[in-house]
Amino acid sequence: MGDRVFTFAGLVYPHSLEGILSHHDFVVGIYTLLITLLILLFARIATSKMQLVPNGIQNIYEALLRGIVDFSRDIVGEEVARKYFPLAATIGFMVLFANLIGIIPGFESPSSSLSFTLVLALVVFFYYHFEGIKSQGVVNYFKHFAGPVWWLAPLMLPVEIISHFSRIISLSFRLFGNIKGDDMFLLIMLMLAPWVVPVIPFAILTFMAFLQAFVFMILTYVYLHGAVMVDSDH
Description:
This protein is mostly helical. The protein is built from 8 helices and no strands. Helix 1 crosses helix 2 and helix 4 packs antiparallel against helix 8.
């Protein structure tokens, strides 16, 4: 369906890429690059004229960043919240901008593509294992997979392995499914009532864009916390 829906990026799809890169993958790639540039641009504007009493976009960014730290601190603690803030906040902004851009007619959410969400999920998956191993050591980290007592190891080990790999599916498919559904909802609304600006649907989709970005970011924090803060009673 992505090949049949009009997008501005689709207008510049070079036919020389046929057989190498599909039309939909090209569109998703263009909009991923676009949201990356937008994030960098807004960050640059927000920090170009730093003021002690912030206003404008600096005020918005400081409120968002402060809110992320304050909320995550209540869930994973001060140390983890601040240490992994760069990664979690970057992923949060990537997902947020990817979700929001799809609300604009003529644009498509990169997060409505499984390729985009799967890459983010894999980044989180490998990074939290890397941090867990670095923090606990290889033996101690994987020892927790076997459970609290040795005779439960044959049962707990496969369960833990499946549980961790299921996080990739959970992160990628949750975001992909929700945003794909939102895009379909918006498309249907615009087809049914193209002469009316569907204010309520746009408001709902905007709320969902923030919610899904928030969920992805918090799960990133939770997985990191579980990897680096494991104790002997886990």
